[in-house]
Amino acid sequence: MMIRKFVLIAALMFGASPASFAASDDVYWACSNLVTDYAYHRDNFNAKEFSELFTEDASLTVVSQTWVGRSEIEQRIEGLKTGSTIRHEMSTIRIVPIDADHATGVSYATIYSAPAGETSVSGFALMGEYHDEFVRTPEGWKFSKRVLISKYSLQR
Asked: Domain span at residue 6?
């Protein structure tokens, strides 16, 4: 009888544990992919794809400007298609699941930009942190709030 109880307890412990780790891993990978997709679509001025990374009522704050709603976020990227180049180098992506449908995150970014036609830069344009709130939607994980906080900028 004692062995059966032990086997039952062990099965419950080991059976439940991988599922909870798997769910946590799924959140981590889905939200990390949002972070890298953000950089990719932003750098390529893919306004529609960029805006679809956000919920309909999401907010995006870049240093001191905020855009609210998917439409405003899309228009922001459309308005930046000036021929200049920009690159986001993302690193240190930390995702923290809150519950089954919510997570937070912080990721570091080094951002480079150059005028149209230029292929060299004298340094980064900004180094900062993105502070994120994620939500699971019927279409998958999305940003509900994203804030870029500048930590360093290039002295000129």
From this structure: 2-153
What is the spatial distance between Cα 142 and Cα 31, in angstroms, rounded to a whole number?
A: 8
Residue pLDDT, tens place only, 16-49: 433 443 566 799 999 999 999 999 999 999 999 9
For 39, the token pair is 């950089």
CB neighbour class for 104 (10 Å; exposed up to 12, middle 13-18, buried from 19): middle
**Smallest Cα–Cα separation from 147: which of 58, 54, 60, 55?**
60
Task: Give the count of beta carbons closer than 10 Å to the beta carbon of residue 53.
Answer: 22
The whole model's pTM is what? Answer: 0.81
Name the residue among 49, 23, 54, 26 with its Cα closest to residue 130: 54
> What is the helix, strand, coil percentage profile of the chain, to 5?
35, 45, 20
- Residue 27: CATH number of its domain: 3.10.450.50
- Is the Cβ–Cβ distance between 77 and 94 less than 8 Å? no
Domains in the chain, number: 1
